[in-house]
Amino acid sequence: xxxxxxxxxxxxxxxxxxxxxxxxxxxxxxxxxxxxxxxxxxxxxxxxxxxxxxxxxxxxxxxxxxxxxxxxxxxxxxxxxxxxxxxxxxxxxxxxxxxxxxxxxxxxxxxxxxxxxxxxxxxxxxxxxxxxxxxxxxxxxxxxxxxxxxxxxxxxxxxxxxxxxxxxxxxxxxxxxxxxxxxxxxxxxxxxxxxxxxxxxxxxxxxxxxxxxxxxxxxxxxxxxxxxxxxxxxxxxxxxxxxxxxxxxxxxxxxxxxxxxxxxxxxxxxxxxxxx
Length: 276
Fold this sequence. Notes:
Shape: globular
Family: Belongs to the menorin family.
Order of helices and strands: HEHEEHEHEHEHEHHEHEH
Number of helices: 10
Number of domains: 2
Low-confidence stretches: 1-8
Helix content: 25-40%
Structural class: alpha/beta
Protein name: Menorin-like domain-containing protein
Mean pLDDT: 92
Organism: Muntiacus reevesi (Reeves' muntjac)
Pfam families: Menorin_N
Distance between the termini: 29 Å
Number of strands: 9
Largest sheet: 9 strands, mixed
């Protein structure tokens, strides 16, 4: 992946280059990046800000009850309410040195959120990732966010932001779980090959091993591309699956936003010390 001109002023800067330059990691290895997932409510947000995490991930929706005058709030469906608005969340996060990843489940929340981000952009000289699942994926039944208006809306405000573009997925313990198909990765490449900024593809850890050829092909299409490995709370996968990913993909181009206890076991297995 290439960084863009402007250094820390650019939201396209490779997060490894950024955190290495700021002496927060010791080498260009995606496994060194520590994530805090779902920092939505104020308790989780404050915990994330106190933690050793480099990147804070949070979910943005519009309230369904018309509260806060339609202002975006921090919650992950099926939750529809929160004690935290995006405006409040940003006001706290800008006091830290954390990178941020905002995850959108609907198009309606995107434009008002970009307006709020624009208000604080000068205080956010750090990595900013904007995420949505824009294509149907393996075993998924959630509705994808329409890719073109999502990308167009974000880039109309921030042409240099880093995109995180994924597929809707599911994982079922009693069924055969399909991986990412050739059709899925080729559709994603069709969406992304016209973009100029970095794109990371969030992929479900339990589905990567059976999709290795497809995902390796996708990464070969551009040095702007990377993977972010994530896990569902009830997914069944092994540390060996994570080590398989580690062995087959470029360490500079794979990030691991995975849950405990697997995160600790994985870092231990590859010799990365975890700062608690």
